[in-house]
Amino acid sequence: MTPILYIGNRRFSSWSLRAWLVLTKAGIAFDDRLVPLNNTDTRKALSAISPGGTVPALHIESAVIWDSLSISEWAAEHVPGLWPSHEGKRARARAAVSMMHAGFLAIRENCPMDLGRAPSPIELSDATRTEIAAMQALWHDVKSVDGPWLFGDWSIADAFFTPVAARFQAYDIPLHAGAQAYCDTLLADEDYLLWHHAAQAETFPNPYENTL
Ligand SMILES: N[C@@H](CCC(=O)N[C@@H](CS)C(=O)NCC(=O)O)C(=O)O
């Protein structure tokens, strides 16, 4: 069976983008199927395909994996090189990904991913400003000098921070030079651009209209 990755609207679903990027970079053959979010029947549709009631959800022969990090770990079990090979870098990459997976709630709340948004600033809460500084400090602390990606070669960490770069771009957030260069790398990635291009073709209503 070819794995099926259920995703949300490409324009808005940052967790779907992460899992899709990891599977794509891994070179794993999979089909994707979109479940439109923010509809009256979204909850029902999601509960039919995802035990967690969320996307992404990856259907493989033996299981449904309904969380972006778990999907990434499944991919890493099958394809080498998705985590850094150096033990210390790998530990730092896992820690950075865990921070993203579980935290940065103010950025996620205040600056939702919207790949159709023309870049323009919004009012940022104090908590969001603090987290933007923390994000840049984190990147500065762990950034490898061995390549353009966070840990040198592309890794799962880069998938997890790609939606952040898209948020910083969409809300025109000024960044330190190093953080900006890293975001530019993420947003110029050819696989991300495929997703971004497909997102532009979507015509679903914008749930953030009139709220930002
Ligand atoms: N921890 C989950 C979070 C997934 C998540 O919250 N997905 C959102 C879309 S980006 C979702 O499905 N929301 C349900 C809804 O909109 O009803 C993961 O990493 O996959």
UniProtKB/TrEMBL annotation:
Residues 3-83 form the GST N-terminal domain. GO terms for biological process: glutathione metabolic process; L-phenylalanine catabolic process. PROSITE patterns: GST_NTER. One of its GO terms (molecular function) is glutathione transferase activity. Keywords: Transferase. It holds the Pfam family GST_N_2. It comes from the Bacteria. SUPFAM superfamilies: GST C-terminal domain-like, Thioredoxin-like. This is Glutathione S-transferase-like protein. It comes from Maricaulis maris (strain MCS10) (Caulobacter maris).
